Amino acid sequence: MKKYLLGFIALVTAITLNSFTVKTSKHPTITKNFTYTAYPNDSHASDPNYYTLTGHDGTDDLDCPDGNSHRCGVIAQDDGTGLPDLTQAFTIVTRN
Amino acid sequence: MRNMKSEIIAALLILLFAYTAFQKFIGHGTFLNTLHNSALLRPVAIFVSWSVPITELAIVCLLLFPLLRKIGLLCSAVLLTVFTIYIVCMLLFSSSLPCTCGGIISSLSWKQHILFNIIFIGLALYGWYSMRETSDTNNNIAIRRSQTPVT
User: Fold this and answer.
1) In DSSP terms, which residues pair with A14 in a beta bridge?
2) A40 preceded by a cis bond (ω within 30 of 0)
3) Taking CB atoms and an 8 Å cutoff, what residues of chain A touch B92?
4) Could you tell me if B73 and B12 are in contact, meaning their C-beta atoms sit under 8 angstroms apart?
5) N or C: which terminal CB in chain A sees fewer CB atoms within 10 Å?
6) Contact at 8 Å (CB) between A70 and A96?
7) Which pairing describes strands A91-95 and A51-53: parallel, antiparallel, or unpaired?
8) Which residue stretches of chain B have pLDDT < 70?
9) What is the pLDDT of residues B65-103, one digit of tens each?
10) Which 3 state secondary structure label does DSSP give B137?
11) Where are the domains of chain A?
């Protein structure tokens, strides 16, 4: 029984640690989908106010037909107000 | 002493894998969403979202039992290597790098995360090597004993 002791202590510790929620993050843990609302005018592409979350709190896919002529949306972190945080790394999605 | 070392290493890996696996199950929706936003994993997001925590728990089971610990240590090293290769690929080729890691580990920076993984890969391989040497020694002893004539 002794040979199982360390393993079971580790397992119980892991389960106990899961009781605590950690919210700190230095890199993005959750990204959401944001649709660019000024399409096809790309001049506002760097302004977060011209983006809106897709359905189901940004979990629905972006509706972007193929092509790379114009900005269609971004996959980015939420800045806390429902707008994309464009100061962090994000993915640009384009369309024709 | 060697067995004790591999026991401690196995315990550390159990702690790591059990913790992150439970985090992935508890926050499965978030985990799936994050995978969905990863260009590399998007086509297989649902499969990965279940297979990764299940694999981690399977490795925990292997590490828990002394008879299976050696294979568990090797599987741990392989899984951590896959995770590390994924992070390096995403850092090199993707503009966005969503963290699919669990709990407190997500508070590490990417460089710290890679270093963390490398340390654990090293520990797992060291543990596996120690166990291999121990079992080789035991086999030699067993062979020598069996060669002794019974009178």
Assistant:
1) none
2) yes
3) none
4) no
5) N
6) yes
7) unpaired
8) 1-2, 37, 94-107, 134-151
9) 989 999 999 999 999 999 999 888 877 776 555 565 655
10) helix
11) 24-95
Cα gap A32→A58, rounded to integer Å: 5
Q: How far apart are CA B93 and CA B25, in angstroms?
A: 28
Contact yes or no for A27 and B14 at CB 8 A: no
The residues spanned by each domain of chain B are 2-147
Q: Please give the residue of chain B at the shortest CA–CA distance from A25.
A: B107
Q: Which two tokens stand for residue A74?
A: 């971004």
The pair of structure tokens assigned to A45 is 């592409």
Tell me whether 0.85 is exceeded by the ipTM.
no
**Cα–Cα distances in angstroms (integers) from residue A65 to residues A21, A46, A68, B127, in the given order:** 39, 21, 9, 51
**How many residues make up chain A in this entry?**
96
Contacts of B109 in chain A (CB under 8 A): 26-27
d(CA B141, CA B128): 20
First to last CA, chain A: 66
